[in-house]
Specification:
Layout (H helix, E strand, L loop, with lengths): L8 H12 L7 H8 L3 H13 L12 H10 L1 H4 L7 E6 L17 E4 L5 E5 L7 H6 L2 H15 L2 H14 L3
Parallel strand pairs: 2-3
Antiparallel strand pairs: 1-2, 1-3
Helix pairs in contact: 1-3, 1-7, 7-8
Length: about 170
């Protein structure tokens, strides 16, 4: 096993994806491909998550309460983000489903994407493949957008986001 050098942003994306699969069977190569992450990086990510106590030793069970704790109390410090320049892109955080149904804002947050339809303040995606993976998986897109609300949002947005994540992951 490699030396643990801390979590990486894609580790959170992988955990969210696996947790969202609930009891469905999954193969590492299939999930890695869906997330636009190399198989090697996926494997290292799983090992880091085992070491951190976010996945069981046998690599079959996501420790959802621990993941929720990390998202609620740690992600904004470990993987912080700040709104940047105005760009065209895909809505995220409070500007994306499901929070956009509850929160009205004059300042949309977006992932920079040339084919995007919304102009707003740029938010760096959690990992490099996030946009491409999200285009093919609406459920995963919403989990990443909710995670962005945890990273960049105000207290009310964070509370709403964590409640939605818990609901989606059956926690």
């Amino acid at each position: 096993m490699r030396k643990h050098a801390g979590m990486k942003p894609q580790d959170i994306a992988i955990l969210l994806k696996l947790a969202s699969l609930k009891e469905r069977e999954w193969l590492m190569k299939d999930v890695a491909e869906q997330l636009k992450i190399s198989l090697g990086e996926f494997s290292y990510s799983i090992s880091r998550s085992v070491f951190a106590g976010l996945i069981s030793e046998d690599k079959t069970i996501i420790m959802k309460p621990a993941l929720i704790d990390f998202l609620q109390y740690g992600i904004r410090y470990v993987f912080p983000v700040r709104p940047a320049e105005m760009v065209k892109g895909i809505p995220t955080s409070h500007s994306a489903p499901p929070l956009n149904k509850e929160i009205r804002s004059t300042e949309p947050y977006v992932w920079k994407y040339a084919k995007g339809s919304v102009r707003g303040r740029a938010i760096q995606p959690l990992y490099a493949g996030a946009i491409e993976a999200s285009l093919h998986d609406p459920e995963f897109y919403e989990l990443l957008a909710l995670t962005d609300a945890m990273r960049v949002g105000r207290v009310r947005e964070q509370q709403m986001a964590i409640a939605e994540i818990k609901k989606r992951l059956d926690v």
